[in-house]
Amino acid sequence: MDSFRYPLATSTWDHSEIDAMHGVIDSRQFTMGQRVKQFENEFAEKFGSRHGVMSNSGSSANLLALGAVKYSSRWENSNRKEVIVPAVSWSTSYYPVSQMGYSLKFVDIDLETLNSPFSKIQSATNRNTAGILIVNLLGNPAELSKISEFAKGNNLFLVEDNCESLGAELDGQKTGTFGDIGTFSSFFSHHISTMEGGMCLTDNLELGQVMTSLRAHGWTRELPTNNFVYPKTGDKFEDYYRFVLPGYNLRPLEIEAAIGTQQLQKVDGIVEGRRRNYEKFKLLMGRYPEIKIQEENGKSSWFGFSMILTERFEGLRKEFVASLSKHSIEARPIVAGNFTKNPVLRHLNHKPLGPLPNADFLHVNGLFIGNHHYVMEVEFELLDAAISEFYTTYL
Fold first, then answer.
1. Which of 84, 137, 227, 379 is the most exposed place for a label (fewest CB within 10 A)?
2. Mind listing the pLDDT tens digit for each residue in 34-78?
3. Residues labelled catalytic
4. Which ranges in the chain belong to alpha helices (H)?
5. Could you give the dihedral angle defined by the CA atoms of residues 109, 111, 114 and 119, in that order, rounded to the nearest 10 degrees?
6. Residue 68 CB: number of other CB atoms within 10 A?
7. Which domains does the chain have, with CATH numbers?
């Protein structure tokens, strides 16, 4: 494996996470239990939501979210089957949409913010639109206030994929709380890490209970006696083994939740450190105007730093990545680029693709590098040297 002096991701753990893991080992309770419930409650409170449902990954969180809107009383019998999605995101933002029987309707992004603008979402909406899956890309909030208001006014569900944007804010509100459901990831490379892990937040009790059932086999075991999914008899023998929804096994582990409770205590410092690094990155990149960087909307939590080659550097991404690698800087495409370029699309339900010029441009000319919670003086020195050399060679 390559070793980079400026990697995409680094650990935010210290002795507190290690001690928490030992606590789980000593308890001998490894499968989902009270630590998961504690983490769900603390996570929901931290980010301003009523209900949290933890899962084994952010990808699973997206699956739970789409399953919840599909089987909720509000949208279950709807004949509308199109879901508007941005053309740039991660694979498992899209798969659950298709897996739940909806058709993906891709809309283009804005090259400044890298998110799909409200105007394009509004224009794409028609009588067949069931909902919107909005993504806050690389820490940057989309136009969530406008999109949320529009979705409510048109009886559309809104799932907010916030997996890359934990801690971001718009209009004084935390991202991941604007939609009917918001999803989060705590994979190693994200703002907080529980090794693997995901979370869904919602203010709607029914959606929370549907996700709770779907997470574990579609049964009623974890539901209260009085619930929105299926009535329980009070007979534990029967209630523990009654299957009412076509669910999964997406349960997290106690050890992941125990780590998560420690990581939550560090969230504010992690995000602030990333924001301070962005200010230095922005200042550095001001010297290289042909390389476009992401424009902040609201308060980004800066998952990473995107760069799009423009003007005379168009088409030179391979050479630019080689210069970064030479200077020990790890880089990758911006999420999955224009996702419609991936061969897997032939397996997904989707509407005929219209023009996506901005996503196409990003797909060929875009990349991103890492951001971290600590001071990055050495990393930015490497970056400056790499870009300077690239400019000298190709300008």
1. 227
2. 999 999 999 999 999 999 999 999 999 999 999 999 999 999 889
3. 190
4. 15-27, 34-47, 58-71, 91-99, 118-124, 144-153, 205-215, 236-239, 254-264, 267-285, 317-326, 357-365, 377-394
5. -40
6. 29
7. 15-264 (3.40.640.10), 268-394 (3.90.1150.10)
